[in-house]
Amino acid sequence: MIDNENLLEMPGDWQRALCVVAHPDDLEYGCAAAIAAWTDEGKEVTYVLATRGEAGIDTLAPDVCGPLREQEQRDSAAVVGVDTVEFLDHRDGVIEYGLGLRRDIAAAIRRHRPELVITLNHRDTWGGGPGAPWNTPDHLAVGRATLDAAADAGNRWIFPELTEEQGLAPWNGVRWVAVAASSTPTHAADATPGLDRAIRSLLCHRAYIEALTDEAPEAYVRDFLTTATSRASARFGDRPAVTFELFAR
Asked: Angle of helix 32-40 relative to helix 62-79, nearest 10 degrees?
């Protein structure tokens, strides 16, 4: 989509969404404001994280950091109305795109049977254009695998062991995969109703934030999310926006 084209409203005719990302805080930095509004409407949203973020804080050993960040993630999810948070236990920082990751995500899709699947930017950079920040290998692997697993989940001959060993019937009901923080968004959700809860949700990742910045966590989080949701507002009726690149299936 061209940068000055208006963003379309995210589809609303769905009941279940599955969010699949690499780390604790990925959703809070990205699209928690939209999730808060959706759960207010009675929609069911489930989180699946590939890792527990155990390599994310330099001053904490992984065996200490992992349980801490898992609890921060569960607390932050609850703020925006998400009760179910699952971890796939891939290693933080060294996730590999491949059949194992696709299988694990396809299994999650079969378990939860979503119509909408949400993941994070799977492209090489954040924002596109010259000098854009480089994305991490974990985000690339999980985002790409999620796009592929949305189709894998509906094909009984791909990963037949999911049916034979786990009793997970194929699910071909994924209608869209939405990529948050894409440099080429096509759709958006109004961030206004859920923005305050998104701020509180991100604040639950306090140990990570305090290791990341010297700013006061409250000021850092409010400034980050307010700025992030305002970037595309001109393309979305001057409303704060959580943006997505939407792929229909």
From this structure: 40
Sign of CA dihedral 37, 84, 209, 137: negative
- The mean pLDDT of 104-128, rounded to a whole number, is 95
**Beta partners for residue 125, in sequence order:** 134
The model's pLDDT over 21-44, given as tens digits with 9 standing for 90+, comes to: 999 999 999 899 999 999 999 999
What is the value of pTM for the model shown?
0.96
d(CA 19, CA 21): 7
What secondary structure, in 3-state letters, does 5-21 show? CCCEECCCCCCEEEEEE
Q: 202 near 225, Cβ under 8 Å?
A: yes
CB 18 within 8 A of CB 117: yes
The DSSP 8-state label assigned to residue 93 in this structure reads T
Q: Across the chain, where does the E strand assignment appear?
A: 8-9, 16-21, 44-49, 85-87, 116-120, 176-180, 187-190, 241-248
Q: Are 52 and 87 a contacting pair, CB within 8 Å? A: yes
Residue with token string 């062991």: 161
Under DSSP, the state recorded for 134 is B
Tokens at 39, concatenated:
């759960």
